[in-house]
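We store sequence with structure; for instance:
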Amino acid sequence: MKISCLQENLNKGVTTVSRLVSIKGTLEILSHILISTENGRLKLSATNLEMGINYKVGAKIEKEGSITVPAKLFSELISQLPLGKIDLEEKDETLYAKIDGFNSQIKGLSSEEFPLIPKIKEKKIISVTAGELKDAIQMVFFSAAPDETRPVLSGIYFKVEKLKIYLASTDSYRLSEKIINLKEKETSIKEIIIPAKTMIELSRVLDDPEKIVNIYINETQIMFETDDFEITSRLIEGKFPDYKQIIPTGAETKAVLDKDKFLSVIKVASLFSRDTAGSITLNFSTKGKIEVIASGSQYGETDSTCDAEVTGKDSDIIFNSKYILDVLNNLPSGNITLEISGKLNPGVLKKEGDKDYTYVIMPLRA
């Protein structure tokens, strides 16, 4: 193999695929990335056996070939090299990298040892713009359970029906649902569960909002494809909870307020709720404000207010500050609505005027 490409493009690709590398795995080959040539481009590949990525980089190909190299070393090396054209050449399972006076040799392993990353091409299920998909992932990923004690809760629910894509996640304490509206009817997907880790990695590489993402699926795997990359992942087995039934359909108290101002108030309150499991109290007043109170024996207390248009009746509720911060940190600026119905029922947070996003949060008991 003998190729040349720009350092900045190679660095971007290596950084992207290296996030999937299994550093602590028992198989040495899983700590490597595969460098190969395909259709006149350089292809970088990595896998942890549950998820795999192929990332394509523009390059001048003088000689076809392939090799695997340690991901950590190669990533650190490329990031330290100067901008400009870098020459890569493989000889006898060693990769030679040259650019502006830097000459490095990296010992690799045969590409034949690298696990196959399957390409699911039986049937394209759906196409969506990268911008829409990235935004949707950003608004639901944080509600998935961080561990796999209950595997179905560690994933993101994905369903295509008529002209809508439904994405949802829940850890049983809060729930996020985002709907993507399609312009053309696509093949329906009844219900699948995609690992949240896969969706997070996918959102990181969706850097061009106008790109089209093609989605393929079979019984056990899903693949996301653009002109620049392919991400393949296993699906999570099991049935996702019937989350629709827990979304409140009405509210006794409704507040409309500025997201950024509310975020600042919640951030301050969270500082004083560290020894009370994040517990903060929200007092809704129809006089035009939400009062946020937090206190703890170790840190002290704080009492802040945020202007809000409150309708219904005065009320109060206790929430985990982290669950509010998670959603506010991922919503765009503008007004939001927060609805509650007493102290014991879940609250609902939405972007004002947006019927396609819903965030449900369970209250804490006093």
